[in-house]
Write a structure and sequence with these properties.
Pfam families: HATPase_c_2 (PF13581), MEDS (PF14417). InterPro entries: HATPase_C_sf, HATPase_dom, MEDS_domain, RsbA-like_anti_sig. There is one protein chain. By secondary structure, the chain is α/β, with parallel strands linked by helices. It has 9 helices and 12 strands. Helix 4 links the parallel strand 4 and strand 5. The radius of gyration is 22 Å and the shape is elongated.
Length: 311
């Protein structure tokens, strides 16, 4: 008889991050119900945040034990864009840490099935580093009947653990978070010839240039464009005597590029990582969160960041 180990050798001191892909209801129940019941036996808070179908299945199989869950919430209400969702997630984890030494979460990011929710794969990857010291087991549920195959491939790249039928095991396709971010960010294409780079030496000059460059179709986003570009220019001027500023449109998307000839970013994931509420820094996080998306190229010869703003 094979003994199932729902969390393997996890000792409750650090993050364990598993991507579980299922294609039928029975496989889901066989994985999640023992995971939940083990948490009850260990007196760990158990949280479930999932779509309606998953919650209905679990409710039917847990019966009276359903009331023992610390949370049983609809995932459909949690999506606030990548930055907003991770920021709220990190805040909730900080609160939990004050109340429990360790806990476990079964979560279904249902938004990955939608085009605008696919950016979450980058944030899932970054969570491996920025939440590494948080003592909980995160069992991420992905329905292969709903989530596209290419997104499921990204799930494998962003989760260190997978399920072998009896215990969590290392995911062979897992990649370093920075590599996942580079691979999944918007493609870096050549700048249009008409998009000349203007050197700026002060944040004030950058704000004026940006405010004047916002086209009529993007006037509603002008404050976001100026504030986000300002943050990037401030960062650039910390490592170089001037920053390069360029703007152009690509269809209905306004692109803002800020570049410098500094030493390059030491951490390419920092625009994705929620800032420490007391210490920061928060400049790149703020810039990323104000834009619809972002891409970066960095190395010893300098850094260029592009922010994308829809109309």
């Amino acid at each position: 008889m094979t003994l199932m180990r729902p969390t393997g050798s996890w000792d409750g001191t650090r993050l364990a991050h598993e991507g579980f892909v299922f294609a039928d209801d029975a496989r889901l129940v066989e994985r999640v119900v023992p995971f939940v019941l083990e948490g009850f036996r260990r007196d760990e808070p158990v949280l479930v945040v999932a779509g309606n179908r998953v919650r209905s299945l679990l409710a039917a199989h847990l019966g009276a034990d359903l009331g023992r869950l610390a949370a049983f919430d609809a995932a459909e209400t949690f999506w606030r864009g990548g930055h907003g969702t991770l920021h709220a997630y990190a805040r909730d984890l900080r609160d939990l840490r004050r109340r429990a030494p360790s806990w476990r979460l079964a979560a279904e990011p249902v938004w990955l099935a939608r085009e605008k929710g696919r950016e979450w794969s980058r944030f899932e990857a970054v969570a491996n580093s920025c939440l590494d010291d948080v003592p909980y087991y995160s069992l991420c549920l992905h329905d292969a009947r709903q989530v596209p195959a290419d997104v499921l491939a990204d799930v494998a790249r962003s989760h260190p653990l997978t399920w072998d039928g009896t215990a969590p095991v290392p995911q062979p396709a897992y990649e370093d978070p920075a590599a996942v971010v580079r691979a999944l960010q918007p493609p870096w294409t050549d700048r249009p010839g008409a998009a000349a780079v203007t050197p700026v030496t002060t944040p004030v000059a950058a704000r004026r240039r940006l405010a004047a460059a916002v086209p009529a179709g993007h006037r509603a986003r002008r404050d976001d464009v100026v504030a986000a570009g300002h943050e990037l220019v401030v960062n650039a001027l910390r490592v170089a005597p001037w920053a390069g500023l360029a703007t152009w449109t690509d269809g209905d998307v306004l692109v803002v590029e800020v570049s410098d000839d500094g030493p390059g970013l030491a951490d390419q994931t920092q625009g994705y990582v929620p800032p420490d509420p007391e210490k920061g820094p928060r400049g790149m996080w703020l810039a990323w969160s104000l834009a619809d998306d972002a891409a970066v190229r960095t190395g010893p010869a300098g850094t260029a960041v592009r922010l994308f703003f829809g109309a």
